[in-house]
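During the no-cost extension, the postdoctoral fellow (Dr. R.K.) reprocessed legacy sequence entries with the updated structure-token encoder. One reprocessed record is reproduced below for audit purposes.
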Amino acid sequence: MLKKLLLLCAAALTLAVNEGPFAAGRGLAALKDGGRNPHDRPLESLRAMPAVSEKEGSAEPHERLRATDVRGDYDSDAVFANFREVRGGRLRRGSLYRSSIPSSTERPRAPYADQLAREAGIRTVLNLANSPERLKKNMESPACRSPYYRMLWRGGNVIARALPAAPEHATFRAGLAEELRFMTKRPAPYLVHCAEGKDRAGFVSFLLAALLDASLNELKDDYGQSFVNYYHLKRGEPRYVTHVDDGIESFCRAIAWTPKEPLRRVAERYLRGIGLTVAEIETLKRRLAHDG
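Re-encoded structure tokens follow.
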């Protein structure tokens, strides 16, 4: 037994040297489980993510995505800011937009997202990334480069809740309910954003578009555009398909959708589950629908 423990300690030390603290931590955790990790793989099979310098063909698709903070690396301000209108189903044109964060004092995309929000005539903002305290600090900072966003915030037209990137989490659900109630009491056009405008904003866009009868293909196209924008992926290439399918599947799991039910019905059930009333859901539909 002592010999086995010594061998396991040596393996963990090797991981610490070769693979970094994350892999070492997993190796040490495995010691507590008889040399097995939580997925019941042998300790020697633990592997950190490949380094950037590894050959393209040796890494998994999700490990090769790279974005930059340089505007010149992107085709337009909208692509750089990941700013766009959400479309699909019965969504009224010009009613709902999504983007990367305009309220940051540090991220290079913020002033571009702010200018695009101004051009789109955004009147109400759902901020999924900042706490109210952090947003106040950013808006009052001399480093704020988002004058339009600051104007909306000062006018009481921005709600901010720092939501975890986990739609099934109780904190996310409670915060989203607050934000959507705020939305029912404020005018369109609406902007939904998190930090990158990809995952948290992606889920909320997915949910609202599904509520307005967007098809699964329309939802995939909208979600996938973030990977085209950020990482220059081409629609249909293996990396694009992998990321979009994984993301949409996670969204569908979060709202407990199966192909046997219309997405609209499941979106409504999710909204009722987080505490919205039938009247509030109907108000959301009226504010977003082209026939509302």
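The chain is about 50% helix and 5% strand. The radius of gyration is 22 Å. The remaining legacy entries will be reprocessed before the final report is submitted.
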